UniProtKB/TrEMBL annotation:
Gene3D superfamilies with a match to the protein in the record: Metalloproteases ('zincins'), catalytic domain
InterPro entries the UniProt entry points to: MetalPrtase_cat_dom_sf_prd, YbeY, YbeY_CS
Entry keyword Signal: no
Stated role: Single strand-specific metallo-endoribonuclease involved in late-stage 70S ribosome quality control and in maturation of the 3' terminus of the 16S rRNA.
Family: Belongs to the endoribonuclease YbeY family.
Keywords: Cytoplasm, Endonuclease, Hydrolase, Metal-binding, Nuclease, Ribosome biogenesis, rRNA processing, Zinc
Protein name, entry field: Endoribonuclease YbeY
Lineage: Bacteria, Pseudomonadati, Pseudomonadota, Alphaproteobacteria, Caulobacterales
Binding, Zn(2+): 113, 117, 123
Cofactor(s) of this protein: Zn(2+)
Primary location: cytoplasm
Entries under SUPFAM superfamilies matching the protein: Metalloproteases ('zincins'), catalytic domain (SSF55486)
Gene (UniProt): ybeY
E.C. number(s) listed in UniProt: 3.1.-.-
């Protein structure tokens, strides 16, 4: 796949993961390559602070507070642009610490998860969740990232 991934970094992401841009690019490209029906596409990934993602979460989803990753699929007429992702540093960092995961592994998982949403996948029911999580596991294994769901409960989150 001919993929274009733009990464915008705000805040202290580089203090948490020194090679954060490379980790993000690698994970996004791997997820995009997992879409057999796509031959090209571009995405933009915003790595930001909790406050900024909380504002986006409120404005676009009507939910209070930050979340780990938000996916904004591109609308009709966007050409090859698949959409945008926004990730909240504080949320991602707290999750990685609480789950005992390496920072780069957790970021990779969330980027893959977000890109799969941009590709039209979802996890609103058990069947969708199982399909999406299996693809996440496959993509992440190809990146050398351990199964992110191995130590979690049956909800996958």
């Amino acid at each position: 796949m001919n993929a274009s991934v733009e990464v915008e970094i705000e805040g202290l992401w580089r203090e948490w993961i020194a090679d954060v841009e490379a980790v993000t690019q690698r994970a996004a490209r791997a997820a995009l390559a997992a879409a057999p029906d796509r031959t090209s596409g571009s995405i933009t990934v915003l790595l930001s602070e909790d406050e900024d993602v909380a504002e986006l979460n409120h404005r676009f989803r009507g939910k209070a507070g930050p979340t780990n990753v938000l996916s904004f699929p591109a609308g009709p007429g966007a050409g090859d642009h698949l959409g945008d992702l926004a990730l909240a540093l504080g949320v991602c960092r707290r999750e990685a610490e609480a789950q005992g995961k390496r920072a780069a592994d957790h970021l990779s998982h969330l980027v893959v998860h977000g890109v799969l949403h941009l590709l039209g996948m979802d996890h609103q029911n058990d069947a969708e969740a199982e399909t999406m999580e299996q693809l996440e596991r496959t993509v992440l294994a190809g990146l050398g990232v351990p199964d992110p769901y191995a130590s979690q409960d049956d909800t996958g989150h």
